[in-house]
Amino acid sequence: MSAVFEHATVIDCTGRDPQRDARVVVEDGRIHRIGASSGPAGPKDARVIDCQGRTLMPGLLDAHVHLALIDLDAAAEVALPPAVLALRIKEVIEATLDAGFTTVRDAGGLDWGFKEAVRLGLIRGPRIFISGPFISQTGGHGDHRERTSRATFPVVPGLASETILADGADNVRRAAREVLRRGADQIKVMASGGAASPTDELDHVQFSVPELAAAVDVAGAVGTYVLAHAYGPRAIQNCVKAGVRSIEHGNFLDEATADQMLAADDVFLVPTVITYELLGAREASDGWTPDMVRKIRQGLTGAYDSLGLAYEKGLRIGSGSDVLADMQGEKGKEIACQARVMGAMNAIIAATRTNAALMRIDKEVGTIEEGKRADLIVLDADPLGDPSIFADANHVRMVMRGGDVVKNLD
Description:
The chain is α/β, with parallel strands linked by helices. The protein folds into two domains: about 5-60 and about 365-410, Urease, subunit C, domain 1, CATH 2.30.40; about 60-360, Metal-dependent hydrolases (TIM Barrel). The longest helix is centred in the C-terminal third of the chain and has 24 residues, at about 290-315. The relative contact order is 0.16. The protein has eleven helices and 18 strands.
């Protein structure tokens, strides 16, 4: 299908200023030409979309989603009927596309089958890069068992999020290979404690450098990489030493650790500020314990300072939401959170061009440039003036994915 976007205000996310009254021609699923609306027209049979001055920009990318985490209470989630689980996950995937996210990286939990369902057209959704099961040490972030439990944690294969517990480099290597066997595009490891795990603290260091390096080695053997949940300096430093490429959260980043990340080759930080904002405003209920609330609020105290330090140091900063359960529809709020520190344009670029580089698809998406895939969104308000508009999917009037219009409110 050919399409021509007329009279658009183009934010191309290359870093250039917006281009007003622009025309973007799409042919065969790719951006064919960009110019002024007064310039050469598109093909005669093309669909003409008059943007009437509205913003046209690349589809958003979210580098840290959990599309299968639909309940804060992990035990309650696995107790749901499988059909209910599947349909609720489907709703989350489709709503994510409608919010303007044309590509996402699931940071653990989603089964390969949902990615395949999107590819086959059984579900309307963004392109998904999956991490498969989490890899955690015993008693780490990802081990959902209470202290009193001696059993394995229940799982609904292919539907409920799953963790593979591994201790020692050989077991981590085996777990990483299993994750790849199940269709993962990259490997997710838990390198520090976390809020949702019942037996650790945020600053606990999990997995040794040799254990982390085992996962990195397995990933590298098939041309992919490792992302790591990590909060504090020691955990992040272990990840950098081991060759982990993507540091998730990083709420307690310090200057020395930021310098190590900067000196390392091809390392990204993916802050996830909005999840702490949302969860920190809640009181304990529905499986979310007072201890978990305490840890979330502790994480929030360092989130903005760490983001500011990373920005000041010039780290490669991506964008991830990490929203869970009934907060899944609020992914776009992460952009406004980052804009408080980095400014609106830099926050938008983090969620487009930088995330595309992180996912190694920057030659295909992330900016509006000739030859790139036509993943585009039309907004009815100016995101540079008010980045909070990404919080409301109704501001996303049209979504094009690979040249196909998959949402149109006009």
